[in-house]
Design brief:
The protein is an all-alpha fold and 75 residues long. It contains three helices and no strands. It has one domain.
Length: 75
């Protein structure tokens, strides 16, 4: 039996919620480790693909700088 449009909508909503939670967790980790982030960097993080966010969540615990994560502030 197929998935209904309602069930598909629920699944998409759950996935969006997970993605947003992961982004928020990443922001918290980055700020705890490296201090306040610029609005520009926050915006960049909001536009990253979910796969990249997941990579960063895992990598931030080992990183010594934002640049090491590929998030260095343009200057």
């Amino acid at each position: 039996m197929g998935t209904t449009w309602y069930e598909q909508g629920i699944e998409k909503g759950i996935e969006k919620g997970r993605e947003q939670g992961q982004r928020e967790f990443l922001l918290i980790q980055l700020e705890e480790r490296f201090g306040p982030l610029s609005e520009q960097l926050r915006n960049r993080l909001q536009n990253l693909p979910p796969e990249r966010v997941g990579e960063l969540v895992r990598a931030v615990v080992r990183a010594q700088s934002l640049a090491e994560l590929g998030l260095g502030e343009p200057g």
